[in-house]
Each structure stands twice: as structure tokens, then as C-alpha cells.
User: What shape does this take?
Amino acid sequence: MVTSIARQSIVIKCKLQESILLGNYEFYYAAGLIGKLTGQQFDFELSPKEMLIQVQKALETYEPRDEKEKYLIHILSNFKPDEEKDEQMRELFEWGIKEDRLWQE
Assistant: This one.
């Protein structure tokens, strides 16, 4: 899988405010973005389900700054990850954390 496709998918979904997260690739990029936005650090070594719990915990006190962030939180709140995890997911997670072109396709 090309990691830029998963990144672009999240950007488009948050801009259009339609659709859902379709898998762990999108989830890990989104989790990295949440880390960036909230200033929280998440451990990639956690299982996907544990990662989601940590992300949701960080979002309890986070106030989204715009509609795209609000939609990102919405799609994360409805996601149920499976236990799959690989190096491309790590790359997407780190890309989200370091994202400098937020919401740009």
C-alpha cells in the first residue's frame, strides 16, 4: 500500500465530512494527527485497540479548532481497529505526528 493514499484519504474525508475510517492504515495516520494536535505522545508499540483507547483519552479534553478536526474526532470515535499492524502503519503514524501540511491534498 502506498502510504500517501491513506493520508490523502483522511484529508479528503475530513474536508468533505463524509465516510468512515476503513482500516488500520487510516487509523494510524489519524492517531498521529491527534498526537500532533493534542500534544500527547502515543506509543506505537501498543496494540491497535490500546492505541485507540489512548487517543480517545487524549480527546476527552481537546477542543477542536475547526470542522475538519471535529470530523476527525468523529470518525475516530466510531472506529474499531483490528489487530493488524505493520511498518507502513508505523510510517503513517509518524507522518501524522510530524504533519506540516495539515489538510492539504
